[in-house]
């Protein structure tokens, strides 16, 4: 079971300063009663803090179950939903049960049933948290996913589009740097293709 967790408007009210993570204690109690749930951070906070830094906001019992962050895609229609589904595909978890805890319904298609919504002015409240706990309890027999970060393949097209955006944003010096990174990614992809072809040839030769 996977929980995709937004932070702003969920663990505290939107734009909170003094109240940051003021609602975390509710989610902590629910997750302690649902040991089979792994957490993936889907919040834009992932763009300013590393996974290690994000984990520091949580008590150790929960931090140890935060396994990843979703990739960052251009902020187009349903971009949070698209980031979640992309991560599921890349991690090989497309058949895994999942739910998103979020404060923005517009980030998800209307047909998407995988969302528990919070009031962004308040964050997670007792009523929503109780429903979330019942949802997890009904799926308590599902094992916690085992995630290997090295198993995720880089989507080269998405990576190159993001690098192009960074080149445009950061001027001549930044553009040269990100172009070099893009070239390295392309070289790595070509090397991977050659390695896979060689592996396939050896397999067919019976080696």
Account of the protein in words:
By secondary structure, the chain is α/β, with parallel strands linked by helices. It folds into two domains: 2-151, Rossmann fold; 156-204. It has helices spanning 24-32, 51-55, 60-63, 79-91, 126-137, 156-169, 171-204, and strands at residues 2-5, 38-41, 66-69, 98-102, 115-117. A five-stranded parallel sheet has the order 3-2-1-4-5. Helix 1 (24-32) links the parallel strand 1 (2-5) and strand 2. Helix 1 (24-32) packs parallel to helix 5 and helix 6 (156-169) packs antiparallel against helix 7. The termini are far apart. 23% of the residues are buried.
What is the CATH topology descriptor of the largest domain?
Answer: Rossmann fold
Main sheet makeup: 5 strands, parallel
- Strand fraction band? 5-15%
Shape: globular
Number of helices: 7
SSE string: EHEHHEHEEHHH
The assigned structural class equals alpha/beta
Overall strand count: 5
- The appropriate CATH architecture of the largest domain is 3-Layer(aba) Sandwich
Distance between the termini: 40 Å
Strand order of the largest sheet: 3-2-1-4-5
Low-pLDDT regions: none
Specify the oligomeric state. single chain
Reading off the top of the CATH hierarchy, the class of the largest domain is best stated as Alpha Beta
Give the integer mean of the pLDDT values.
Answer: 85
Radius of gyration: 20 Å
Query: Considering DSSP H and I runs of 4 or more, what fraction of the residues is helical?
Result: 40-55%
Tally the structural domains: 2
